[in-house]
What we know:
This protein is an alpha/beta fold and 428 residues long. Helices cover 39% and strands 15% of the residues. It is built from 14 helices and eleven strands. It has a seven-stranded mixed beta sheet with strand order 3-2-1-4-5-11-8, sandwiched between helices. Strands 6-7 form a two-stranded antiparallel ribbon.
Amino acid sequence: MNAINNNPITDIRHKFHEIQVSPEWCFKNVRSTEQWTHGYHRYPAKFLPNLVKKLIENYTVEDDLVADLFAGCGTTLVEAKVHGRKSFGVDINPVAILITNAKTSPIKPEVLYAKYSQLLSILSENIECKITDHKLHEKLDYWYFPEDKLKIANLYYIILKEPDESIKNFFLVALSNILKNCSKWLQSSTKPQIDQNKTPADPIKAFKSQVNQMIKRNNQFFDHLTYNGFINVPSEIKLEDARKTSLNANSVSAIITSPPYVTSYEYADIHQLTAYWYEYINDLYGFRKGFIGTFYSLNQELNTHSFTGQEVVNNLIEKDKRTAKEVANYFNNMYDVGKEMYRILKPEGHVCVVIGNTTLMNVKIKSSEVFAEILQLQGFKIVDIIKRSIPNKLIPTIRDNITGRFSNYDNKNSKLVYPEEYILIAKK
Length: 428
């Protein structure tokens, strides 16, 4: 059994037991994910825009630089631009980079209409598609019927010829968001599994419908930014690791982010269709290993920097040593993220972290308490801890009662969970 080193800095964990849910941070019946460009692409555990909006308004001023080290599909960056704040995001997932680039790049409506008409014209002339010059990844044969695969390939290679990067990304995101609908993938599942009874959507019809929805959102976004004089506010997203970014020391006014849950969503698996189609990956296993909080970590460490984190790991060792190593790896990765946050943040700047707890093998994984300790260990001062319930309309989750991982009703050990999460506000 590993020893736990007591440290008075970890007394913060006792405050979590006293915190009540704050109704003003719950945003019940709010549909902010449909505003601006937020709805361009599905993304698991998506950051609630209204939550980011409130944090930006409370902890930043116009022209501040806002950073998100787990940028995902770009919610923080979009909201920063809407509020006239410069933004910088990093993510290790190339699919996230594509989505965020498209969502933060408003296009003149008349230009977008013209380009879409041109694409449809080219598409109508290439109904019969024969792929001869390109070799598609063999894994796509597993997920698609031959006729659907050819239609998607046709669309993909037409889009790739677009010289304007913003236009090309816009259409690539539209295509990416329909890939699951047009495949054999079980529609209701985030886990990769075949639905033997599924009739995939027609790729051309699905693409047209998706683009039409995105055009409306782009136009609203463009008009709002133009009206407020924010159209040229910088927003940048880079394919980087949250533990080591290219940001300068003491350069960021505020960090607003939501780290992944430990061993919950496997983002590499979820986005594999786009990753295969767009040639971001060739080896899924290698792609998985770079993600924080992944089940596929090969780390062998069982010691952590956090008092609470070590308690959690020690409890897991009694259940399953591999799971204990996974969780220890997650906590240690997050310690490195905390160190990077402190490096890039300006003195007096705030870091706002939205993070939730989970359960693995009937052991409560106190990620929120652990990260609060990590922030203190790095030199941050915790100024507020907010507890919020997540409305079940936004994220109803079914978890395996034993493993704690996402599941479905067919699993006899499954239970429905209406989760709560914490917002940690710390100051440098």
